[in-house]
Amino acid sequence: MERQKVFTKAKESSVEVNPAYTSIVGMLKYAPQLNIDKDISGAYVVGRRALGFKEDTPENYEKLLKDKAYLEFALKRYEEREKELMELIEEEHTKKRTKECRECKEVINQFSTKPSG
Questions:
Q1: Who contacts 28 (Cβ-Cβ below 8 Å, separation ≥6)?
Q2: How close are the terminal C-alpha atoms of the chain, in Å?
Q3: Could you tell me if 29 and 54 are in contact, meaning their C-beta atoms sit under 8 angstroms apart?
Q4: Under a CB-based contact definition with an 8 Å cutoff, are residues 42 and 26 in contact?
Q5: Does the predicted model carry a pTM greater than 0.70?
Q6: How many CB atoms lie within 10 A of CB 37?
Q7: What's the burial of 116, exposed, middle or buried (CB within 10 Å: 0-12/13-18/19+)?
Q8: What contacts 31, CB < 8 A, 6 or more positions away?
Q9: Residue 53 · residue 26 · CB < 8 Å
């Protein structure tokens, strides 16, 4: 219900905002400054855009993005995290297959044992 009210008010105001990268900008720029979560900070960016504000990249981020050592570190860290996640996925698939195989064998055993009588 509240969501519909927000959309109605937005249509009435006839202000359109490009939502591209609002979550990222909010998460990097406003969430740490204002101690808010990424969703609220993304909405904050949308509101600022609606008011006509432009977002500049903070100087410290520009320095980081130009630093080769940092970029190599970040890339390596993401590669390691990807490997960890792939291993977890494979482990989960293995557990699931093992459980399914065990259940299938139990069913087969139940049908293969003939009742004595």
A1: 61
A2: 65
A3: no
A4: yes
A5: no
A6: 11
A7: exposed
A8: 37, 38, 40, 41
A9: no
Q: If we measure between CA atoms, which residue out of 22, 23, 26 comes closest to residue 35?
A: 26
Write the DSSP assignment of 20-83 as a string of letters.
Answer: TTHHHHIIIIIHHHHT--HHHHHHHHHHHHHTT--PPPPHHHHHHHH-HHHHHHHHHHHHHHHH
Instruction: Pull the structure tokens for residue 93.
Output: 């698939």
| Exposure on the CB side of residue 64, measured as CA atoms within 13 A | 9
Q: How many Cβ atoms are within 10 Å of 19's Cβ, its own excluded?
A: 11
Greatest pairwise CA separation for the chain in angstroms: 86
Mapped onto helix, strand or coil, the DSSP state of residue 49 is: helix
How far is the C-alpha of 89 from the C-alpha of 30, rounded, in Å?
A: 33
pLDDT tens, the chain, 117 aa long: 566 776 677 677 777 888 888 888 898 889 988 999 988 999 999 989 988 888 887 788 888 889 999 999 999 999 999 999 999 888 888 877 777 777 777 777 777 665 555
Q: Which two tokens stand for residue 78?
A: 């993401």
Instruction: Round to whole Å and give the CA distance between 102 and 6.
Output: 52
